[in-house]
Amino acid sequence: MNHNIFPCFWFNEDGKEAADLYCDTFGGTITADTPAVLNLDLFGQKFMILNAGPQFEKNASISFTVLCETEDEVTKFWTKLAEKGRVLMELSEYPWSKKYGWVRDRFGVTWQIYLSDNKVDQRIVPTLMFIHHNNGKALEAINRYTDIFPNSKVGGILKYGDGVGNETHEIPENVQHADFEINGYTIFCMDNSYDHQFDFNEGISLVVMTDDQEETDHLWNSLTADGGMESQCGWLKDKFGVSWQIVPKRLLELMNGEDRMKGIKVMQAMMGMKKIVIKDLENAYHS
């Protein structure tokens, strides 16, 4: 499992409360706790919470599938996450799982709680829903992401026409469920033709920690190509509208060094960047 790729949630000042809920639900721990940023360890996976303000709302275009090993786990996780939340699909038996439910917790993060037949290392899997103008592009996205990232592979692909529990009016060749890995990190995805009142945004992003400038440049250039968009401070949107943060590990080393004033200089330099340039960060540090 790759620890250099992890999800980031955008919160409006209530991130600590959410972090406590997720740690309580999944038996996790808070590994970094600052007013702006919290890092969580859930099942050995990293999650990041930004207390960044009211600009972006989290939504179900990226949900999180929790692969449970027992029915008791399903019930426990469901009960905690559903409290003061909203049920999107009732906890019940479905053609794809003996026990499954989809819930939006009280902080706006959506979870698919799923009794899995297999033991897996990565228990929580980001699940991308391709809707509106992206509906029908899940397969294109899988191929694109697995081309861009090293150590990637395509897993199973189930199309709506394959007939597993498709009572809907979906296009037969569209993806009902697929899994793939980018650099050893598992992601699920699906197409959906329902006219949801949301789409991909910065409320939930995927962070990639890079080893050097070469890797940073490759990911930045590849993900912004063909209609993607550069944003500030290492943030970008790819051609489908999915938000990514491409962050060199060197940035954290320089920001969190012993000299606090130098760290502030690095932070200020980073704030003026779109793609993060390590050499410019180091120049700021030594200035």
Summarize the structure.
By secondary structure, the chain is of the alpha+beta class. Helix content is 26%, strand content 36%. The protein folds into 2 domains: 5-191, 2,3-Dihydroxybiphenyl 1,2-Dioxygenase, domain 1, CATH 3.10.180.10; 211-286, 2,3-Dihydroxybiphenyl 1,2-Dioxygenase, domain 1, CATH 3.10.180.
Task: Throw out a few tags for this protein.
single chain; 287 residues; alpha+beta; 2,3-Dihydroxybiphenyl 1,2-Dioxygenase, domain 1; 2 domains; 8-stranded mixed sheet; 16 strands; 26% helix; 36% strand; globular; PhnB-like
Rg calc? 19 Å
Q: What name is given to the CATH topology of the largest domain?
A: 2,3-Dihydroxybiphenyl 1,2-Dioxygenase, domain 1
Question: Which descriptor suits the 3D outline?
Answer: globular
Largest sheet: 8 strands, mixed
> How many independent structural domains?
2
User: What is the overall number of helices?
Assistant: 7
**SSE string, helices as H and strands as E:** EHEEEEHEEEEHEEEEHEEEHHH
Helicity range of the residues?
25-40%
Name of the top-level CATH class of the largest domain: Alpha Beta
Unreliable residue stretches: none
Q: What is the name of the CATH superfamily of the largest domain? A: 2,3-Dihydroxybiphenyl 1,2-Dioxygenase, domain 1
Task: Output mean pLDDT.
Answer: 95
- Architecture (CATH level 2) name of the largest domain: Roll
Give the termini distance in whole angstroms.
38 Å
Query: What spatial order of strands do you see in the largest sheet?
Result: 2-3-4-1-13-16-15-14
Q: What share of residues are in beta strands?
A: 35-45%
